Amino acid sequence: MSGSALYETFARAPLAFEKGEGVWLVTKDGSRYLDFAGGIAVNSLGHGHPKLVSALTEQAAKLWHTSNLYEIPGQTRLGERLVAATFADKVFFTNSGAEALECAIKTARRYHYVNGRPERFRIITFEGAFHGRTLATIAAGGQQKYLEGYGPKVEGFDQVPFGDMEALEKAITPETAAVLIEPVQGEGGIREVPAQTMRHLRELCDRNGLLLILDEVQSGVGRTGRLFAYEWSGVTPDLMAIAKGIGGGFPVGACLATDEAAAGMTAGVHGTTFGGNPLAMAVGNAVLDVILEDGFLDEVARKALLMKQGLAAICDEFPDVIEGVRGTGLMLGLKCALSNAKVNTALREEHLLAVPAGDNVVRLLPPLTVSDDEIREALRRIRNAAQGLSKAAA
Ligand SMILES: *Cc1c(COP(=O)(O)O)cnc(C)c1O
Fold it and tell me: Within a domain: residue 58?
């Protein structure tokens, strides 16, 4: 054995945490870090939220797992609540984002299959996209660095430049089934799809009989100040994958669909052992209890503005370190003038955790429960880091 017992697939920071308290992570020796990585947009309500802890422990004392051979009341309830709060009529629960995407891709193909158009199986995606690490989702994401060495790319994904509607229109063929897009690219560098482009996409899909699939695995569940980012554009999809924030740290994902889009998903055509199990559903319901509370999302939007204004001031002060600020809600990105890895490390040295992304961006994805004071503290640390780097560059 060489080195650790674990696959070497992660370039981990040399840090381990023992406990979490809201927006803070604490190491064994008591060092405290402000967590603006949020487990990559997963810890939507921070660490150790009392409502999530009691939902999980109460369920753990009753029943963990039965499989989908039987009815799961918590699953029915979370499904009904997601349906009530979104465009969707139907929900399939998974354990991860990639599985939610797999379900969306399969649902789109089955839709055309049962409608007598089995030749329609191709899905158009966008450069810079990230949809997960399964064989189909790396094909959907189309990033060479994730595809290399894994044999033939899964057939049926066509990629066009981000936001290029002309290229999109040209890529539509009689075999096209759907268009798949993140309303805000996360891993791609916090790149937003303008509302006008979202409307254009919907119109193109309608005109060509295609399904519109949104990947809101990162942008969903309150992250942008609305329950889902699509709400900002007024455009509704036919299918949507969610995960990350809905579990608040417990692995939960879901594929949401209209009745029409889900028409092909009949008994036996898809399945999961763990997806939607009682523990996951107890936590998912508790997350929704908090996020759907009156005024919660307005507070996210208000705090996001405070954060964005503070970041813009830092950007003005140290343009040799931070070129620009992007994103909506608490899904923000610093476009770096130096290498984003360097900026991310400098932030970590200030005990502020962030996440590098594509396009030389550092992502800030704090828990939605972050306070004004914690935002001000984060801004102070980001400014310190920028100042240090700015001097170092001089
Ligand atoms: C994280 C992510 C995924 C993959 O989710 P996993 O739970 O890691 O499988 C898919 N799409 C987007 C937009 C993501 O951010």
Answer: no
